[in-house]
Amino acid sequence: MTDYNRIRSSSAMQAATECLAKQDQRMAELVGRFGPVDYQPWQQDLFTALISSIISQQLSIKAAATILGRVKKLVAAEDVISAAMLVQQQPDALRGAGLSNAKVKYVLGLAEAVVAGDLDFKSLDICTDNEIKDRLVGYSGVGYWTAEMFLMFAIGAPDVLATADLGLKRGMKVFLGLDDYPSEEVFIQEAEIWRPYRSIASWYLWRLAE
């Protein structure tokens, strides 16, 4: 499997989950416990997904969803955030929706890049996962965690492992029966058996951490 492989249908997600379960009996138990993966990257608008990832930084799922809903009321058409509409918004309006000053700057910068043609999501189809990460982290507000969430939930990359994610660390701690969070080295080593479906394994670790 290469970086260019993407999960782009429910049947592909099911097949990948079944392969993961066959590779690790412990993961098979989580699949049976939590059921099928419920995220659908093939239905995502990429710009909306990236803005959502920015909004979600350092927020609870509930708080992020609330703010995203407010932003969509300002700049979305049929639940899709429009870069053209976003660049026309005054910063005060976005702050009123719940965005911090920094996040206002980040989302406006991304919208301006899309409108100017500097950030072309269609071109990402011919990029590897690492190339996409390198391209995105060049924009203010997009760190590796944000790029990894975008790869997983919007692009459909099957083998993303966000070792810095606190929820995943918590899930791995429970999964391994540890008293403390695993080191990055242990995390990577334990996740090796899940290649090339570490994105899907991550979803089950998040469920385990809840």
In short:
The chain has 210 residues and is an all-alpha fold. 61% of the residues lie in helices and 2% in strands.
- Shape, please? globular
Number of alpha- plus pi-helical segments: 12
Strand order of the largest sheet: 1-2
Look at the structure and name the CATH superfamily of the largest domain: Hypothetical protein, domain 2
Q: What this model shows, in words?
A:
The chain has 210 residues and is mostly helical. The protein has two domains: 10-41 and 160-209, Endonuclease Iii, domain 2 (Orthogonal Bundle); 42-155, Orthogonal Bundle (Endonuclease III, domain 1). Helices cover 61% and strands 2% of the residues. The chain has helices at residues 10-23, 25-34, 46-56, 61-75, 83-87, 91-96, 101-116, 129-136, 144-155, 166-176, 184-191, 198-209, and strands at residues 76-77, 80-81. It has a two-stranded antiparallel sheet with strand order 1-2. β1 (76-77) and β2 (80-81) form a beta hairpin. α1 (10-23) packs across α2 (25-34), α2 (25-34) crosses α12 (198-209) and α3 (46-56) packs across α9.
